[in-house]
Recover the amino acids of this structure.
């Protein structure tokens, strides 16, 4: 996928630069959703959960596929938790960036469906090596044709915005691993959480 690699090199470089600057920041996790973050649930819920994740992270895919559906049904869909998904890049950074750009091109109403489809296709894409084909199929399932997909993943403005979000994650919330979970501003865990751990985190956040 050489063309995609070249197009997204700016994101990888920016992410590495952000990681290098992270040691200078003394702030803790804010857990706050910004205007460009993607969210689910009632924004007035007493529990605010933030997940930093990457579509190329295997542990993130496992959490999304095996744990998140139950958590969503139990807490997000019932208005008990407001969930914010924050994008992060893990190797191969260009593939992660392309996945996020594709999801954003699909629009807010389809964003989470595209992210979910990429997580479910992740193993096959990496096993076969047909990453571009896998992402294109996901894009097409969301109503994005190949020409639109090519424009989407080479959108310099969107790449720059993604880079800024990743830099903010590293500097402000000191994120260095995915998935990372924050509840009401408190970093609870780096690494996938079980349903039992999520139950405990929600209970603790409501005290």
């Amino acid at each position: 996928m050489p063309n995609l690699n070249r197009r997204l090199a700016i994101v990888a470089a920016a992410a590495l630069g952000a990681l290098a600057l992270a040691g200078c920041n003394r702030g803790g996790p804010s857990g706050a959703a910004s205007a460009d973050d993607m969210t689910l649930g009632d924004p007035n819920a007493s529990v605010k959960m933030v997940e930093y994740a990457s579509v190329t992270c295997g542990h993130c895919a496992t959490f999304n596929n095996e744990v998140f559906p139950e958590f969503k049904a139990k807490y997000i869909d019932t208005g008990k938790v407001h969930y914010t998904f924050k994008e992060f890049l893990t190797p191969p950074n260009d593939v992660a960036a392309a996945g996020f750009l594709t999801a954003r091109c699909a629009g807010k109403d389809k964003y989470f469906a595209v992210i979910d489809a990429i997580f479910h296709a992740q193993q096959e894409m990496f096993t076969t090596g047909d990453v571009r084909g896998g992402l294109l199929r996901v894009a097409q399932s969301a109503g994005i044709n190949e020409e639109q997909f090519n424009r989407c993943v080479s959108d310099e403005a969107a790449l720059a915005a993604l880079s800024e979000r990743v830099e903010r994650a590293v500097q402000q919330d000191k994120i260095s691993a995915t998935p990372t979970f924050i509840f009401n501003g408190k970093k609870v865990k780096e690494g996938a959480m079980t349903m039992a751990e999520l139950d405990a985190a929600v209970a603790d956040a409501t005290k």
Observations:
- Confidence is low (pLDDT under 50) at residues 14-28.
